[in-house]
Amino acid sequence: MSVYLDANATEPLRPEARAAALAAMDAVGNPSSVHAAGRAARRILEDAREAIAQKFGARPADTVFTSGGTEADALAIHALGVGRRVIVCATEHDAVRAAAGPGAVVLPVRADGIADLGALEALLTAGPPALVCLMLANNETGTIQPVHQAAGLCRRHGALLFVDAVQAAGRMPVDLGALGADAIALSSHKMGGPQGAGALLLAPAHSALRPLIAGGGQERGRRGGTPPLAAIAGFAAAAQAAGESTLAPLRDAVERAALAAGAIVCGGEAPRLANTTSLALPGVRADAQVIALDLAGVQVSAGAACSSGKVSASHVLAAMGLGPLAGQAIRVSLPWNATAGDGAAFADAYAGMAARMRPALAAAVA
Ligand code: PLP
After folding, report:
1. Does 306 qualify as catalytic in the annotation?
2. Whose C-alpha lies nearest to ligand 1, atom 14?
3. Of the residues 37, 82, 138, 194, which has the fewest C-beta atoms closer than 10 A?
4. Is any ligand 1 atom within 6 A of the Cβ of residue 135?
5. Which domains occur in the chain, in start order?
């Protein structure tokens, strides 16, 4: 048995995305070439751009393809942060935190994980013009931030707002204009497209962007490099196929099973993505839980997915004031094709894991 509940690391490929990517692989040309083969490749690229722009409320001309969410985050901060203080919400993804650098000002969150908008207003009032980075939905807890309200504050104080919408897109409505953001970042593989493609969508005022990667003038000079046509075609197909997530009842069933086994739901009081829950098991290390569940055939993660496989306490849960629980929480993120059977398998595996590990803990403490 193998049950995959780590969609926020990567969603399973959607069939529509696979078909579109495979078809695009047969295109021989480079979209920059002027001959017929190049023009055919260019058509695939521009069709994908139009589909993504339309789905997420941007103009095609303001849709810049990147290699994924990390690059879109880095490009946004590199370009929009010029001459500005960068204010980063404490629970942002490491891609944003690293791009903002150690000099960034940290915006605190409340105990439920929601950004403290009073603190944001104070920060915006206090200093020179800022770039504010506030994600739409958190990758570990699913917490949905009040981005629209933050956008109003930013406008009033002459600040720009960058929104990492990587986890939200394809699971809840995301529209650049409706959010009032200056730019949003997207990632193909978080919505059931192939890995290796993403996009930064810009408000019209920021059309001309300082590139992070210069090169052959691709993407209107905003991102050098030959675009990965197959990944981008799959990205567009996935975006079109993805609708608002209907997984909340299954997520709730997962939570009920975990609560019955002694877990705490981290940030459960705030508005959240339908597919995501963060479950702390007091006293049991997150990596031990992940390994035990994996041995039982259920794949989840410990907080954020991490390329090195190292597990450290979650900065997201620490920012919410959860103390030691920040190192004792797993993330369950249901994929778009999750079934009731997956939920039941999780419930069984979790109950077994908790029953084995919590007595061991009690014995160690005694
Ligand atoms: N932003 C968020 C909120 C994420 O969850 C992730 C990936 O986990 C990224 C950015 C990075 O995206 P990518 O894996 O496409 O580089």
Report:
1. yes
2. 69
3. 82
4. yes
5. 3-11+245-365 (3.90.1150.10), 15-241 (3.40.640.10)
